[in-house]
């Protein structure tokens, strides 16, 4: 009986309840099959199928990241103007069309045009997805629904990675072309899912709408966005810094890296929904962010121990450190979702969610080089200031969120109606 109840609990934490929460999670999983397939096979596709050099690929992706950074706020404002579902749907169709053109790209200029266009579409549709989930669900359901989406998103990523293994094993130009056309089809199927989601009434817009960049003047909110964005560095730590540390400072076998990636996927699928509890208010979300930050700091203190351990003990400590970082990721993610849902005003939610995403994009610009330099190239002592940084961010985020709650958002003199899905 106890084992049966445990299984039921696990299933409840993976399978979303019927209704809109399940529909949103299923579309996320379908989308992630295509996205996961491309992320796993893109480097080989760019170099083998398109004939680009590694330097050209890196430059193109860096330019695209810059476009995404600059365009997030103004393009996020499209959601406020046209509605999240419409922007989301158009984004998926454009994604499908752009991926379908990949096999016909000739040279670096064509590649750059496609990746920049994809970055702009992602900047707009990424905001629209979040805003739709926030607007369509009751406040008490939002964070849990996002947790279900992330759980099934990882299932989709895993399926996509398996498919990429097949493509890489075949290793022909035809297989790589088939891969991107399959991804294009997946995005169109996702668009059909999104089209069938409940329509939402448009929020009341101000008589004199704000400039799309005006949100950047909301200092308390932007301070929250920056602190929360810095905490998303757990991704860089897990996927970049941790593997480099293992390779250069430990005696662990290289296969441990793949095992830790698998551990990350499994724990997110199993535990993300459970970790989302208590983060559906700004105060609860701030506390979750603080706990995540302190766990990241603890990871920074535990991992360097593997530089002095040997054999099995090294692997044991690596797994312990990785588990700390995964739990930090689970908790911090729910904190970010709760803050995104609770702080922005309804009628300017697209612009505010876009501005909130700036924090994580700033992290993507500075964390790979900065954290690698501190954690790997210093020989180990750099983990101590790194731990201090994350601890300070964690201690600061609760009072900063309280400051943002006390401060009216820009344009909040316009009352927004309750958001109820239209059947």
Can you walk me through this structure?
- It contains 14 helices and no strands.
- It is mainly alpha-helical.
- The C terminus is likely disordered.
Short key terms for the protein model shown above:
Growth Hormone, Chain: A; 14 helices; mainly alpha; about 425 residues; disordered C terminus; 2 domains
CATH topology (level 3) name of the largest domain: Growth Hormone, Chain: A
CATH architectural group of the largest domain: Up-down Bundle
Structural class: mainly alpha
Tally of strands:
0
The average pLDDT is 87
Oligomer designation? single chain
Gyration radius, in Å? 21 Å
Low-confidence stretches: 414-423
Overall tally of domains: 2
Helical content stands at over 70%
Helix and strand sequence = HHHHHHHHHHHHHH
The CATH superfamily of the largest domain turns out to be MFS general substrate transporter like domains
* Tertiary shape: globular
Beta-strand level of the residues, as a percent range? under 5%
CATH class of the largest domain: Mainly Alpha
Distance between the termini: 41 Å
Q: Please, how many helices?
A: 14
Q: How are the SSEs placed, and which strands pair?
A:
Layout: H1 2-12, H2 20-49, H3 54-82, H4 84-101, H5 107-136, H6 139-170, H7 173-195, H8 219-231, H9 234-249, H10 255-275, H11 282-302, H12 311-342, H13 349-377, H14 383-406
Helix pairs in contact: 2-6, 2-7, 3-4, 3-5, 3-13, 4-5, 4-7, 5-13, 6-10, 6-12, 8-12, 8-13, 8-14, 9-12, 9-13, 10-12, 11-12, 11-14
Report a brief summary of the structure.
With 423 residues, this protein is mostly helical.
